[in-house]
Amino acid sequence: MHDNLIFLLCTAISYYIYCGGALKIGYTVLTPQPVNRLSSTIVFPINFSVLCLVAALELELIANWILFLIILSIEFLILFPSDKLGAFFLTLLCILCGMAVNLLLRAAFSLVLRIPLASFSPFDFLRVSSAVVGFMLTGLGLRWLSGSRYAASLARILRLRRHLPFLLWIMVVLFVSLTLHLFLYLRLDYSPLPKLWSLASCLFALLGLYWSLCYAARLSYLDHLHLQNTTLQKALAFRQVQEAQLAAASNQDALTGLPNRRAAQQTLTHWLEQGTPFALCLIDLDGLKQVNDVQGHNQGDQYILTVSGLLQHACRKDEDALFRFGGDEFILLFHNMTRDSARQRLESISEALAQTEGNMPMAFSYGIALRQPNDTLDTIIQRADSQMYDMKHAHKSRQFEGRSKSE
Fold this sequence. Notes:
This protein folds into 2 domains: 2-234, no CATH class; 261-406, Alpha-Beta Plaits, CATH 3.30.70. Helices cover 73% and strands 6% of the residues. It is built from 13 helices and 4 strands. A hairpin with a 4-residue loop joins strand 2 (321-324) and strand 3. The protein is rod-shaped.
């Protein structure tokens, strides 16, 4: 009686360590929370009661381990309802480890002591010793696993899911093979061959489980890197789009939608460096300030938009370029065009503008400068600007003479 109590106490301690290790790995991999003490307090008595009941009923090892699998699966599904597949995966992991280690020790004891595998009675010292050492080693192993880098690998496998079916199939096959292997424990065979076969089978199951986990962990890590790379590529592409939009916005006039002064300077610099032949037309709206002061800025904006539309209509697609250079100034670049042709186009635009219906007079002055071999950005704009001011002065002189005659 005294020996049975000692056996029972040792078994309880080892099984408590095993249950604690199973819960530890479950909470570490499936949730970011620490082990719930209440769940540990409830799970251990239930499992230990089942263990004692199985020993009292003297059920075969096959029935024992299948019953343990069912009980632990139910408990994990209750404790971790948000990830049922992950809970079943960890159940199989704990059962396989415990089953393989226990059977390995039992086969080693029977081989050393030269007794049959079936000679272990429920409260026999050898059976209790192998169970105590087996559950204790498995529990400590599961606790170590939950605190190592392998726990992160298991969590990654469960999170990405891609290689989880492969692992589950391997683990189910290993469990079935170990379960079928338990038929060896029903024979009173003193030869060493069944014991050696049992040792080999248990080692094969443990190594197969380890290699499968390492293989799946490695592939999951590569998937994780691929996912990170894809995420970074998307973020980079999004940032490039944003930068392109910002660059476009910084080079675009808000009112007309035309490229602005900065874009004009960049294009002019590029054409000058490439030696592109072109005629630069600097266009200045006449009387825009007076329209803004007398009729309001809305009318002034309409003035700008009207001229902008006519100038765009005069541009040849994929050849010429139009920019809003300032408040009342535009730059029009005619690619490979003579001065006379550029003047004719601008005069046609001026006539169309004069005929546009509206409650304000609209006209513009312009200057034309052809690209010269030694031109810079400043020199070509200065030449066009000088001609434009000469025309603007002439327009003002004619307006003054007209008003004088009318008086």
